[in-house]
Amino acid sequence: MCGIVAYIGKKDAYPIIIKGLKRLEYRGYDSAGVALFNGDLNVYKKKGKVNDLVSFVKGKNLSGNVGIGHTRWATHGEPNDINAHPHTSDDGRLTIIHNGIIENYATLKEALIKEGHTFTSDTDTEVLVHLIGALQDKDNLELEEAVRIALSQVVGAYAIVVLDRNDPTKLVAARKASPLVLGIGQDEFFLASDATPLVGYTSQVVYLNDEEIAVVSNDGTFEIKTIDNEIQTPFIQLLNMNIEKLEKGNYEHFMLKEIYEQPNTIADCMRGRVNAAAGWLKMGGIEEQEERIFNAKRFIMAACGTSWHAALIGEYLFEELARIPVEVEYASELRYRNPIINKDDVVIALSQSGETADTMAALELAKDKGALIYGIVNSVGSSISRITDSGSYIHAGPEIGVASTKAFTGQVTALTLMAIYMGYKRGTIPKSYYHQLLEGLEKIPAKVKEALECDKQVKELAKKFINTNHTLYLGRGYNFPIALEGALKLKEISYIHAEGYPAAEMKHGPIALIDENMPVVVIATNKSAYEKIVSNIQEVKARKGIVIAIVTKGDEEISKIADYTIEIPDTEEPFTPLLSVIPLQLLSYHIALARGCNVDQPRNLAKSVTVE
Ligand code: G6P
Predict the structure, then answer these.
(1) Ordered domains of the chain (ranges, CATH)
(2) Which atom of ligand 1 is nearest to 404's Cα?
(3) How many CB atoms lie within 10 A of CB 596?
(4) How much is the pLDDT for 609?
(5) pLDDT tens profile 308-346
(6) pLDDT (tens digit, 9 = 90+) per residue, 419-434?
(7) Ligand 1 binding pocket, CB closer than 6 Å
(8) Which residues are tagged catalytic?
(9) Measured from the CA of 492, which atom of ligand 1 is nearest?
(10) 3-state secondary structure of 249
(11) 524: closest CA among 535, 513, 512, 510?
(12) Tens digit of pLDDT for each residue in 294-304?
């Protein structure tokens, strides 16, 4: 969480930093701030979104060819102007932007107070800048040396950039467990939490590794060393991202754009991996580690949030199609419960951002225990994609709306391909079914497009549920994780309490909640357990609940008993989640919009959760 951007070069830093902060706003939007140097240091910060900062600085001195900026997701200290970054050292000489948490800040702060430092904010970050300043003053150290020593005393996670008023010809940056990308331009450098602020300026990037410190100068030189003072040879990569993908285009919100992108993003995920006519399906990530993957005794899938729901679908897919035992874990639980993980396990991490702190930590634990670690990741070059032994990118492109949509269907697509690939090779999928599945897969993008046609109907329906306080989502089999995901989407962006449940579990509790005011969304597509889900709908209706059913096109039985039905195209059962999630994404979008909520930036949330 928190987004950081910095620039040093010959251009005006302010517009570059503000544009970058807007692209990073998905990481947090509690406050924003910039520090710019032009003969003197000007620091501006404001509670609220980047646009609030922009209004606040109107008419102020925004000049300078070097600067740092921050958009915050509050951890230590409430969101207000004072706790906003950048933070400064006692004498105002140093300014810092920080993403992460300094866990031992309280001890460090106490020692610094004893030495006479005074603090103005409640943040952990301010402690770090005071510490660097104190070290610099004590032994008259170069900034990079003071940063290096300070970081060796710090416990926690950080991506930082420090600007020294006494030497504004350089910036010093460092990272540990929070992402940081260095962009290399013509006699100019960019530093950012991800590569999006660099797009349009440079395509040469270096993803800094943990415990690396970069010093970038306005004469076009830079150096990377480790916290142990060892000089590193930078690995410069080419960035492959275009501006259209970072903008809303003709859509009102990123979330809607991303929902509508799904026919293409799912096709992109399958591109080069499936060819039904030629009868093949390839997964490079599995081929790279074929022996260990095929000899694995068990798969463990670890993830958070929406990615965890995708993992649950993975469990159904892997067990049904490839007959491999799968356990699905919340990464935050797995990492702290001393789990049994063996050398012959494969641990799959699912993550859109590739930066989620808990998922990262769970993977590190699995790696230490000798398991093969595999990533299903969207963000190219992210931390998770770099520590895994192998993996599959989902190729969904940048996802900016905080509520995940296209990354979810990308993850499910990747898992589906993996399950079919392994199932066929292991002989658990007969040849004829294999070919049927490949043909079915290729039709999915067109069917997703067809499923999106319910948009108008869903928009009308949404109006009826604007004032609802609670909603229940029910599903069975592959549609159970979709019930969880539908409920999460509604909670996240409309702030309506919603619960997802396995349909049959309803009678063990949630049924007590049902009355004539309770909307119940039932994902009731026409495959196995169809009769059972029809009975569940009857049970809801018997208690006067309002049933919104997601059904397979042409279904006549459910439309007779449900209050509202939304149709999706028919498909092979394992592909159902890719279609049944579409109306639920649209439903939450339209309800949130009708309630006047900020759909792309829901309160209290951030897209990339780099703290525990
Ligand atoms: C946050 C986001 C969710 C996301 C989850 C996991 O909570 O708001 O949309 O599903 O983090 O993120 P990841 O990047 O690991 O998929």
Answers:
(1) 3-85+94-99+158-241 (3.60.20.10), 250-429 (3.40.50.10490), 451-599 (3.40.50.10490)
(2) 9
(3) 9
(4) 82
(5) 999 999 999 999 999 999 999 999 999 899 899 999 999
(6) 999 999 999 999 999 9
(7) 304-307, 351-353, 356, 359, 402-404, 605, 607-609
(8) 2, 607
(9) 8
(10) coil
(11) 535
(12) 999 999 999 99
